[in-house]
Design a protein that fits this description.
This protein is of the alpha/beta class. 48% of the residues lie in helices and 14% in strands. The chain has two domains: 171 residues, NAD(P)-binding Rossmann-like Domain (Rossmann fold, 3-Layer(aba) Sandwich); 106 residues, 6-phosphogluconate dehydrogenase C-terminal fold (Orthogonal Bundle). The strands form two sheets. Strands 3-2-1-4-5-6 form a six-stranded parallel beta sheet, with helices on both faces. Strands 7-8-9 form a three-stranded mixed beta sheet, covered by helices on one side. Helix 7 crosses helix 10. It starts with 6 loop residues before the first strand and ends with a helix. The mean pLDDT is 94.
Length: 287
């Protein structure tokens, strides 16, 4: 593990599950003296104070970041470039801006937005659950998880090391990755499953309108598979729009898999169906 950093003031813009959990663990590890929260919901920000995730809050990001050592952009990803523009004139020299978004390629623009002498390090902690809001936050969220950092050739290496040591202190294993590779990989392993889960629940909802009460029969398998459909729709709307080309490609690949299974069913191909399911089962058992 790298040596522990210390931040006199941390600003969390978007004090939800991820931002709140990061604030809690940084407090627990003694690497931050003051945490300022920024958000839209006063109730959520008051909850954050009650949970001791933040010390104080404001609704204006430009006020919060003055004098801050590190700023965590934890709002929905489509808002992050706009937020970077808003806070850029108010950052002190040496300030580090990082994020927790699930899409990385478009955010490289932030490096050009921030003033010279301040630094952006793009990040994506691979942790979370379907519940949102700071009341779901807890300091152990990142323990034994992964966190992807996606520096470019222009990213300040000292800033990368600082952000890496912060996430390692939070319990995560940090990996470095190209931002475009990140977006393609997570379109497949994260974004696609979420879209499918939403679609599956909506399919059942349409059936509910035809056969009242069908949802009451949904058992463990359906609940397990669709758990992630309880994730916040604003967050996933933004991810889909920002990573649309990769997600559309993965949806097309999924459609081809579905079409293959449909053909096997239509053809009464018992051997083909068994082979398809067995191939998937063996992969799943290795996860």
């Amino acid at each position: 593990m790298s040596s522990l950093p210390h931040f006199r003031r941390m600003v969390i813009i978007g004090v939800g599950l991820i931002g709140g959990s990061l604030a809690l663990v940084c407090r627990e590890k003694g690497i931050v003296s003051e945490v300022v929260g920024v958000g839209r919901s006063e109730k959520n920000l008051q909850d954050a104070i009650a949970l001791k995730a933040i010390d104080r809050y404001t609704f204006k990001a430009e006020d919060a970041v003055k004098g801050a050592d590190i700023i965590i952009l934890a709002a929905p990803v489509r808002s992050l470039i706009r937020l970077a523009r808003e806070i850029a004139p108010h950052l002190k020299a040496g300030a580090i801006v990082t994020d927790v978004g699930s899409v990385k390629g478009p955010l490289t623009e932030i490096e050009d937005i921030l003033p010279q002498g301040t630094y952006f390090v793009a990040g994506h902690p691979i942790a979370g659950k379907e519940k949102s809001g700071v009341t779901a936050a807890f300091s152990q969220l990142f323990q034994n998880s992964k966190c992807i950092l996606t520096p470019t050739a222009n990213t300040n290496r000292d800033a990368v090391n600082t952000v890496q040591s912060m996430w390692e202190a939070a319990g995560a294993k940090v990996l470095l990755m190209d931002p475009e590779a990140h977006d393609r990989i997570f379109a497949a392993v994260s974004h696609l499953p979420h879209v499918i889960a939403y679609a599956l629940v909506n399919t059942l909802l349409e059936l509910e309108n035809e056969s009242d009460g069908i949802i009451s029969y949904a058992a463990g398998g359906f609940r397990d598979f669709t758990r992630i459909a309880a994730s916040h729709p604003e967050m996933w709307r933004d991810i889909c729009l920002m990573n649309k080309h990769n997600i559309l490609e993965m949806l097309e690949r999924y459609e081809r898999s579905i079409a293959k299974i449909k053909l096997l069913i239509r053809s009464d191909d018992a051997v083909g169906l068994y082979n398809e399911f067995e191939r998937a089962r063996q992969v799943r058992e290795k996860l």
